[in-house]
Design goal:
With 179 residues, the chain is α/β, with parallel strands linked by helices. The chain has two domains: 50 residues; 114 residues, Rossmann fold. Helix content is 45%, strand content 19%. The protein contains eight helices and eight strands, in the order E-H-H-E-E-H-E-H-E-H-E-H-E-H-E-H. A five-stranded parallel β-sheet has the order 5-4-6-7-8, with helices on both faces. Strands 1-3-2 form a three-stranded antiparallel β-sheet. The longest helix is centred in the middle third of the chain and has 13 residues. The radius of gyration is 17 Å and the shape is elongated. GO terms for molecular function: DNA binding. This is DNA binding domain-containing protein, excisionase family.
Length: 179
């Protein structure tokens, strides 16, 4: 039996407002069912829709996290959506990739041994000030986050997160043409 979501539940799942969901319904761009006088959304169909609409073009995406499981999770989600993914287990490794290759987006863990995510972000801003970065953190109120905020605007994705969160971040922050 399919898992059906209400407008409010799909808005929460997609991390958008209910108004955005209604706009998508008006455009006919989100898969939905009309049950009586209410809209319902099959979760599996929403996941497929996210994959198909994440970005029209393939993008080069860098994932920086000291946890191999997190890197593998991002790789699986993003490659399934058609993107090219490079992973780095440290800030130093990430900076080498950024110097050598053009990326459309970087997912960057905030807490890493050695060079912190805030330090990596500061160095990314000197290499490529316009490169979109999404900070991955389980500590949104930490001193490290305050240090990262001093480096300018970026996206934030709080742990724990799911596939929809990753794909929404890509859709929100990616710049076609950098890929």
């Amino acid at each position: 039996m399919p898992e059906l979501l209400t407008v409010r539940e799909v808005a929460d799942y997609l991390r958008v407002t209910q108004k955005t969901v209604y706009r998508l319904l008006q455009q006919g761009s989100i898969p939905a069912l009309k049950v009586s006088h209410s809209w319902r959304f099959d979760k599996a169909s929403i996941d497929e829709w996210l994959k198909s609409t994440a970005v029209g073009a393939k993008a080069n995406i860098l994932v920086v996290d000291d946890d191999q499981t997190i890197r593998d999770l991002f790789r699986d989600i993003l490659e399934d959506a058609g993107h090219r993914v490079i992973t780095a287990g440290s800030g130093a490794e990430a900076l080498e990739y950024i110097k050598a290759k053009d990326f459309a987006l970087v997912f960057l863990d905030l807490k890493m041994p050695g060079m912190s995510g805030a330090d990596v972000l500061r160095k990314i801003r000197t290499i490529d000030p316009d490169l979109p970065v999404t900070i991955i953190t389980g500590f949104p109120d930490s001193e490290s986050m305050a240090a990262a905020l001093a480096q300018g605007p970026f996206g934030v994705m709080n742990k724990p997160f799911g596939e929809a969160d990753v794909l929404n971040a890509v859709k929100s922050f990616i710049r076609i043409g950098r890929s």
